[in-house]
Description:
Layout: H1 6-24, H2 29-43, E1 49-56, E2 59-65, H3 68-80, H4 84-90, E3 95-98, H5 111-117, E4 122-131, E5 134-142, H6 150-197, H7 201-215, H8 219-229
Antiparallel strand pairs: 1-2, 1-5, 3-4, 4-5
Amino acid sequence: MSEVPGEVWEQFAIAVAEMARDLLAQDSAQNTLDRVVDHAKVLIDGCDEAGILTVRQGEVHALAATSDVVRRSDRMQQDLREGPCFDAVTDRQQIYAIEDLREPNKKWPRFAPGLRKLGMGSMMGFLLFTEDDNLGALNVYSHKPDAFDEAARRAGWILASHAAVAFSAARTHQQLSHAMETRHEIGEAMGILMERYGLSEDTAFKVLKKTSQDRNVKLREIARQICQTGEKPS
Length: 234
C-alpha cells in the first residue's frame, strides 16, 4: 500500500474543518444528517453515493440518503436482515466493507448480488453513533469494484466520528429549543388564565396539568390551545 502524501492529508484536514463548521451551522438534526452524506461524496475518494441508517429494536430506518438507490439498499438490508451496515450497527463493529460486488459473498449471499443489481461495485459501512439501543451507520457506495483504499477507509472513519459529534450536538440543540418553546407556551397560557379568570400562578398551572391528565394530551398542546382560543379548558 502506497503512502498518502502529506499535502493530501493536509488538504483533507482543511476540508474536514470546513465540514465541521458547516455541520454545526445547521439548524436541525435532519439538516445535519443530510449534509453529512453530501460531504461523504466530497471527502471520501471513490464515493458515488452515501446514506445514514439507524437500527431501532431490530428495525432499519433510513435517516439520510443522496439518492433513491441508497434508500433501496437500506430497505433491502431490512427485508433480507443481512448486509454490512446492518451488521455494523447490530455487532457494533467500526467498519464493514464489500470490496468487489462481482464476487460471491459468503457472509451476505443475498444482499451483495442485490446491491450489484442496483449498479454498485463496492461499499463500506461505518458505525456512526451509539446510544442505548439506537445505533446508526454511515454507508458509502461506489459504482466501481475495489473503489475504496486504506485512505478512503480512514477518511470515512474520520467523517463518521465528526458526524456523530455534530449530530449529537444538533439533537441536543433541538431538544433545548423544543423545551424553551414549550416553557414559553405554558407561561403564556398561565398568564391568560391568571388575567382572565383571576387565578393564582399555582392554580393556573394546576388547571393546565389536570386538563392534560384528564384528556391524556401533552401539557404543551393544552397550553397551545389556550393561547389560540384564550379560553379556560372545560
